[in-house]
Amino acid sequence: MTLDKEADLSGPGIGSYDELAGVLPDDYHSILNPRETQEALFAAKSFIEDGLCRELNLMMVQVPLIVDAESGVNDMLDRDGSRTPVEFHIANDHGKNPIDAQVVQAATKWKRVALAQFGLGVGEGICTDMKAVRKDYFLDHDHSAYVDQWDWERVLTEEDRNLDVLTEVVKKIWTVIKGAENHVQELFPQLETERYPDLPDELTFLHAEDILERFPDLPRKQRESTA
Fold first, then answer.
1. 70 lies in which domain range?
2. pLDDT-derived band at 46, boundaries 50, 70, 90
3. Does residue 151 lie in a domain region?
4. CATH number for position 101
């Protein structure tokens, strides 16, 4: 079987609204009321930010919301130019220094510039609190046109770029995420429910080549979901 290249390169998630309608529950209701939801969100957010900075030796930074289109630091999110950023003109300084501006879509490129900008050395890094707009994104249960997310980047040596270091970093991240779950459940015990099972204490690691060997006839995102 020859895999369709577009299907194999497509990102994770759901690809059509018909498919989305088939997987979303029609009886969902929030366990927490609106006030409790906000309190829980910010409790989890603070716990995770502090934990990531502590475990990975990072400093918190704010990603710019608006960048100069000519800076080259905005991420286009795709290979074919179909996901374009929100753009507008700024007549800066009474028109003397006008800027064609873009709203950030992702901080992938900006983070690497920021490592040098903040003078960070080997083993140090940044944890970003990024606000962005993705007007051409497919919208589903976990993708929005408005993005509020974390990201991080750390300075590594050539010797650090190996599977052992990667595995150790992932374990540290998972410890923080699992800790955030425990923290929020302590604040709101009603979140401990069989309807939403707890996160596992430990992760199982699968190599991409192993998954490919097990499911050679599936495109990438289906291989990952099946595994």
1. 31-196
2. very high
3. yes
4. 3.30.930.10
